[in-house]
Write a structure and sequence with these properties.
The protein is of the alpha/beta class and 423 residues long. The chain has twelve helices and 20 strands. Strands 9-7-5-2-10-1-11-15-19-20 form a ten-stranded mixed β-sheet, with helices on both faces. A hairpin with a 2-residue loop joins strand 16 and strand 17. The relative contact order is 0.16. The structure holds guanosine-5'-diphosphate, 6-O-phosphoryl inosine monophosphate and magnesium ion. Guanosine-5'-diphosphate (GDP) binds next to helix 1 and strand 3.
């Protein structure tokens, strides 16, 4: 069977974790393809809330194999804590999780380098999650990195020491002061836990699964506008968050990709620095943050909020070849009388219908279409037939603009608050 891909179309935190958990009963395997513990994927069911950083969001469903692919970067400290937390809930992690030998390791010094680099940038900082993501991917492409498969090799310690010594030189360049001993101690303790999870050639595992007709869902992290190539560079993450990343991050041929499920919030949020044309620095934005509980799942930082940005969404749909869409957090917009949607940007006489290369908030203004709000609580709705008229209009407006169907609408954080639409 072909591999379906689920990924974020905005700046991350669209609700990928929730929807992967909802869709998991349809799949034999869930495979994360990029990013690392910069991700925070929230799942809510049976009155409990879980935040996953590295483990795929299929882990809570029985009889599902979860794979951390070669494109992911792993911090052993964070992953081992995740494993311990989930095991306490009686989830059989050890039999339902495997890790690619080719996934790269985040070292304690990668985290220090991330912090040092951000500190050196001052006001220009990316707003990184400080999990060491950028420096780890730099070592990967610089061909210096350490991989999961190295953990069991005889010369692991010499490889580790040589890389750490390089990092120490760099930290001297940044004039960054640090304490390494404690975190290094924890790191070495936690790789012992990592060694107990099977290390596999995940690309071979997945291709064999494809040929034996197993169903696979690839889970993205971050969002398309944070993609290293197509996002709002340099305010991006360091991996390909778009569909092509599923091919390189799992070893799947493009011809084996099936559905591409693009997920977006009914409005927009962004955490960290960088352009955000429809950002609302007013009461409306504040209200969205409050009602939507828009605080980062990984860092707790307040998320910037604003109206839906259709040109940016269209661009993400194009880059990913999205075949269907999922609209999240429709319930949050229930509290607004009028809902705005950005359909373009204006700079002087020029109108742009895509995100301009040189976008600058001072020179560009969003062009809005205003739609009526529905002023109705959606959180208890269980069928599409109960959608208020104004919500149906909002959905149709977006579908008409994007030319891709919205197959799922989410009306609350819980697993059950999910409406699968009729075709
Ligand atoms: P992810 O990184 O894409 O998995 O998304 P996050 O977990 O970082 O952020 C999504 C947040 O929205 C989480 O707190 C979810 O519990 C919550 N959430 C998901 N879907 C809905 C929804 O339809 N309505 C509301 N109100 N909250 C939602
Ligand atoms: P999920 O998977 C939202 C943002 C950071 C920062 C930029 C670079 O939960 O959607 P990094 O640590 O990757 O070097 O940070 O990217 N960022 C995210 N924003 N959701 C995420 O993941 C993110 N992962 C990184 O805030 O602006
Ligand atoms: Mg998140």
């Amino acid at each position: 069977m072909k591999v379906d891909v689920l990924l974020g179309l905005q700046w991350g935190d669209e609700g990928k974790g929730k929807i992967v958990d909802v869709l998991t009963p349809n799949y034999n395997i869930i495979a994360r393809f990029q990013g690392g513990p910069n991700a925070g994927h929230t799942l809510e069911f049976d009155g409990i809330k879980h935040v996953l950083h590295t483990i795929p969001s299929g882990i809570f469903r029985k009889n599902t194999m979860n794979i951390i692919g070669n494109g992911v970067v792993i911090d052993p400290i964070i992953l081992s804590k995740e494993i311990e937390t989930i095991e306490k809930l009686n989830v059989d992690v050890r039999n339902n999780l495997v890790i690619s030998k080719k996934a790269h390791l985040i070292l304690p010094t990668h985290r220090l380098l991330d912090a040092a680099s951000e500190a050196s940038k001052g006001k220009e900082k990316i707003g990184s999650t400080l999990k060491g993501i950028g420096p780890t991917y730099m070592d990967k492409t610089g061909r210096n990195g350490l991989r999961v498969g190295d953990l069991l090799s005889d010369n692991f310690m010499s490889k580790y020491t040589s890389l750490v010594n390089k990092h120490k030189q760099l930290l001297m360049f940044y004039e960054y002061s640090y304490q390494l001993e404690q975190i290094e101690f924890e790191w070495f303790e936690s790789i012992e836990i990592l060694k107990k999870i099977p290390h596999v050639d995940s690309e071979i595992y997945l291709n064999q699964a494809i040929h034996s007709n197993k169903s696979i869902l690839a889970e993205g992290a971050q969002g398309s506008l944070l993609d290293i190539d197509f996002g709002t560079y340099p305010f991006v993450t360091s991996s390909n968050t778009t569909c092509a990343g599923a091919c390189t991050g799992l070893g799947i041929a493009p011809g084996n990709i099936g559905k591409v499920i693009g997920i977006f919030k009914a409005y927009c949020t962004r955490v960290g620095s960088g352009p955000f044309p429809t950002e609302l620095n007013d009461n409306t934005g504040e209200q969205m943050r409050k009602i939507g509980n828009e605080f980062g799942a990984t860092t707790g930082r307040a998320r910037r909020c604003g109206w839906l940005d259709l040109p940016a969404l269209k661009y993400a749909v194009m880059i990913n070849g999205a075949t269907e869409l999922v609209m999240m957090k429709a319930d949050v917009l229930s509290h607004f009388d009028k809902i705005k949607v950005c359909t373009g940007y204006k700079q002087g006489d020029k109108v742009y219908t895509h995100f301009p290369y040189e976008y600058d908030a001072n020179n560009y203004t969003p062009i809005y279409t205003e739609l009526p709000g529905w002023n109705k609580d959606l959180t208890g709705i269980t069928a599409e037939s109960d959608f208020p008229e104004a919500l149906i209009n909002y959905i149709s407006f977006i579908e008409n603009e994007l030319k891709v169907p919205i197959s799922i609408v989410s009306v609350g954080p819980n697993r059950n608050q999910t409406i699968i639409r009729k075709k």
